[in-house]
Amino acid sequence: MMSWWIWLLLVVFMLDMLIVGAVFVVWRGLALMRTVSSLGATIERRLAPASTQEERAPLPRPVFTEPLTVASDRYTDAQAEVLARRETKHRRHMAQWERWLTINHQ
């Protein structure tokens, strides 16, 4: 059988741990509220320009209302841009491989 003072120490320790736990929860909750508040302010600042109504340029006419030659010309121009981007990418890759080859053979 344990004496009364050991029970008293256990009860005091338990109450201390409960109080320390409650203080920790409140402390971390306040820190979380500050973090969420700053996050909300950042999101609001970044989304604010999207909510303003600006004068927009009129949209171009849909392609299906244009003559077929217009659609064909647009497609040809777009395809030429795609091929130019691919060629540029290929040249960049070849230049990088050349640099690696010269480094490896020195």
Structural account:
- This protein is about 80% helix and about 0% strand.
- It is built from 2 helices and no strands.
- The termini are far apart.
Name its key features.
106 residues, single chain, mainly alpha
Helical fraction equals over 70%
Number of DSSP strands?
0
Query: Count of DSSP helices?
Result: 2
Rg, Cα atoms, Å? 35 Å
Major beta sheet summary: none
Order of helices and strands: HH
Short description:
The chain has helices at residues 4-51, 68-104. With 106 residues, it is mainly alpha-helical.
How are the secondary structure elements laid out?
Elements: H1 4-51, H2 68-104
